[in-house]
């Protein structure tokens, strides 16, 4: 897909209200392409699940996504594993999450994001009505923060 494909998809997402699950894993979107997708997500009301696994995303790309998350009211599930997101990018995502009450599950690489920052994300998710966040061990050395029973880590 690359950046040009992400740009075209971003334009389509601005008018499409039917897509609920968007799996963009392994598409080499990069930070530049994420800007187009994020721009569309600021107005798209239908995407509830977004998979951005392995897209060469870095902390710099999290600014656009955080901005989209802060206004989007439909995304509940976000997978960001196998990218180059560190504590810096995760903290940027936290800023957008503070204004979003729909996001209840976020997957990041635990090798790149520290436990204190994961805890900060968990605390934000904990503010969601009816949610009890937990740390769930998942494959690929990722830590997923989701609603459910608490698993002591």
Secondary structure elements and pairings:
Elements: H1 2-13, E1 21-23, H2 30-41, E2 49-51, H3 62-71, E3 77-79, H4 87-97, E4 105-109, H5 115-126, E5 133-138, E6 142-147
Parallel strand pairs: 1-2, 2-3, 3-4
Antiparallel strand pairs: 4-6, 5-6
Helix pairs in contact: 1-2, 2-3, 3-4, 4-5
Keywords, separated by commas or semicolons:
six-stranded mixed β-sheet; single chain; 6 strands; about 35% helix; 5 helices
List segments where confidence is low: pLDDT < 50 over at least 5 consecutive residues. Answer: 133-153
Strand order of the largest sheet: 1-2-3-4-6-5
What would you call the shape?
Answer: globular
Largest sheet: 6 strands, mixed
Describe the overall structure:
The structure is a single chain. The chain has 153 residues and is α/β, with parallel strands linked by helices. It has helices at 2-13, 30-41, 62-71, 87-97, 115-126; strands at 21-23, 49-51, 77-79, 105-109, 133-138, 142-147. The longest helix has 12 residues, at 2-13.
């Amino acid at each position: 897909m690359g950046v040009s494909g992400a740009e075209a998809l971003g334009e389509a997402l601005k008018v499409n209200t039917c897509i609920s699950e968007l799996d963009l894993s392994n598409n080499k979107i990069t930070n530049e392409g994420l800007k187009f997708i994020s721009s569309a997500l600021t107005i798209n009301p239908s995407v509830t699940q977004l998979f951005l696994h392995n897209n060469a995303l870095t902390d710099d790309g999290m600014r656009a996504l955080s901005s989209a998350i802060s206004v989007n009211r439909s995304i509940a599930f976000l997978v960001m594993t196998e990218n180059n997101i560190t504590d810096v990018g995760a903290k940027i995502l936290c800023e957008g999450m503070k204004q979003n009450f729909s996001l209840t599950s976020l997957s990041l690489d635990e090798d790149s994001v520290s436990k204190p920052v994961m805890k900060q994300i968990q605390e934000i998710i904990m503010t969601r009505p009816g949610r009890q966040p937990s740390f769930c061990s998942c494959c690929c050395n990722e830590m997923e923060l989701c609603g459910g029973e608490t698993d002591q880590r």
